[in-house]
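Fold it.
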Amino acid sequence: MVDEFHHADAKTYRNLLNHFEPTFLLGLTATPERTDQADIISLCDNNLVFERNLVHGINAQLLAPFQYNGINDRYVDYDEIPWRNGKFDPYALENAFASRKRAEHVLHHWKEKRQLRTLGFCISKRHADYMAEVFTEAGVRAAAVYSNSELRRNEALRLLAAGDLDILFSVDLFNEGTDLPAIDTVLMIRPTESKILFLQQLGRGLRRHKEKKHLVVIDFIGNHESFLTKLITLHGAHSYRQVSDQIKTGKMILPNGCFANYDPEVIDFLDRMVRSQKATMVDEYQSLKSMLGYRPTATEFYHYISETGTDFNKVRSQNSSWLGLLAQVKDLTPSESEVNRIHGQFLLNGIEKAAMSKCFKMILLDAFLELDGFLNPPSTEKLAEKSWHLLKRRPVLYQSELPAKQQSMSADEKGWHSYWKGNPIKAFSEGKDTLFEVREGNFTFKEAVRSEHKDQLYQFVQELVELRLEQYCVRKGLRPDISLAE
């Protein structure tokens, strides 16, 4: 069992996961969305056996329902603020937010909709101090708290809980890991490019409390595509069109007792984004990246376009390959581009386009990676044994892909080694176009891999292996049974 599994793509976690060979790997997290560009469910062998998110918590009356207000952030033109690497320029944001009109616009809507105790999320220390000053001048009991602020965190929370403060403006202190049951109003006055960050901020006010019937959320939506990530997350949607349809029909997919209201300008902006969406893979990719706040994995993009009925093969017809798409949108670093130039044909033909009547080829490559095969070619015995463990950790695939005779074998049996040599080792290492060979009993990659390229090649192979396994499971109807969650 590995706790805090949403950090599992960090190198320390990867080393831990690669060290053990568990019969079953259980990852525990309250935040199952990805961080650090990793599909964490795949790190747990795609074994999703139990899931409880905010919707489940609210429906079970373990969390408070919310009333969400999407307010037009009319005094900031986000088109004029530089956007780099999935984020707004922080200095330009600070200057834009230090506007009296914008602060008074926030104050007006807060006074109109707030309850007793408010937590406000700001972009910087300067922004938090400025908002606290404007609110205080208006007769509101307000304060700012952040790392090294004059008012310390625990004292600020005590004052707010006791009712001695009306609103507390914070910077990166209360996104996660803080228990604030008395908070009944959340004020979001900063961009939130990440779905995870949005859910963490929303979650700060969802704890039940004797004086709270519901949480009021006051969120300021700007004229930039990144703000719509919140709406997609809130409505459990996969596209702008789905959110727009929910709002227009009044059939919003929200937890029990929850409501959402939007300024007309926000709805108009959403409609413009729906009309501007195009069918090219580059446009689809840019939309997903904007929603997530980071570079999507191939698996994430596959699921995203599948929601609209688009075949992943369209990536290759328009951009030659998944990495070709990343190159087209300039999302490859110089090092990644170099690895793709040298090994791109292997990544495309050997993985992305590899024929798969069973899942064995991808399991073999996964085992090859774990054995550091690019620089240290493993023996076919070690490769077969590691493959057995990886397959065993995916019980759905193990039971559906292996004949009964092989299911009764152990990892170190000669019979298992012989079976695995027949398929997939033979399929990967025999024939004129294969990129592997069995040399002196070792499964060897034919292309020379420079030591400085090994880690990057590893990551590319891993990403494409995860994609192909997911595509295969979907095609075969082999998704894990998560009925226990109900």
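The CA atoms of residues 198 and 353 lie 37 Å apart.
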